[in-house]
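In this supplementary section we document a worked example of the pipeline. Step one takes a protein sequence of length 321 as its only input; no multiple sequence alignment statistics are reported here. Step two produces a three-dimensional model, which step three serialises into structure tokens for compact storage. The input and output of this example are shown verbatim.
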Amino acid sequence: MKIFSKSADIMHAKWQHLASEGSARVNVFEHISLMALDSLQKCIFSFDSDCQAACRLVHDFTDAVIQQRRRTLISQGSHDFLKAKAKAKTLDFIDVLLLAKDKDGKELSDEDIRAEADTFMFEGHDTTASGLSWILYNLARHPEYQERCRQEVQELLKDHEPKEMEWDDLTKLPFLTMCIKESLRLYPPVFGILRYCAQEILLPDGRVVPKGNFCAISIFEIHRNPSVWLDPEVYNPFRFDPKIPQKRSPLAFIPFSAGPRNCIGQTFAMTEMQVVLALTLLRFRILPDDAEPEPRRKPELILRAEGGLWLRLEPLSAGPQ
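The serialised model returned by step three reads:
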């Protein structure tokens, strides 16, 4: 939580500087992607690359970090080093993987750890950036929802000094969370997935998907299915009101996929989106950029906007304290 807040502070300080004369026109996708990368490097490696300040991506150091950390373990004796970090609650993701053992007591190899770290790294920053950028876009287009979110955050943090989010605060932002989910419905960062059929699948109309086939599943289309969602093209956060019983299938909304191969980082991603969105709305008013045409969706590995996602930012305060 503290890392998310600090990374957001750095991004917001840049925005304050850009908007020092009133408002700023910003490609939020680019800025948020760097912010999310900054957070991941700190959470995975305890590494501060200054990637937001220097605006340079640092992706190719995973092996060196793992080997250096393992040498530290050896020099300091077995796992005493990691156990001390665990007790002090300063473990990062690499530490957790170095401590991990299978049921036979076998440790992960450097190759295993690199694969896990790379998965978290590359799946975990641009996807979150996509999600947050489209959320800001939707709230810019719906100022009434944006203001309600802001009031919710202001009420929650009015007695917090400094203005940081705590873990227990996450459950106290129900409307903000509803707005995040509705944006993830309309603009899922991962818009499609593949699944291998390990057995025959009988469809409702009687047809059979043969065993051994790969199936392409469109999360984007599932989220806009008119037989499930009323007015599916409309941004309506109240679809996710926890006080209203939902009759739809739990598989009607799958922004993080579903089943045994769902997203390993979904709690991490949702937490980061809640923290960064809350602090952003506390400090800025988000407005559409009238100089730009309506953004065209650009489906690559993740859902981007063609030419970037440009919004205007108006500071509401002096920024991060």
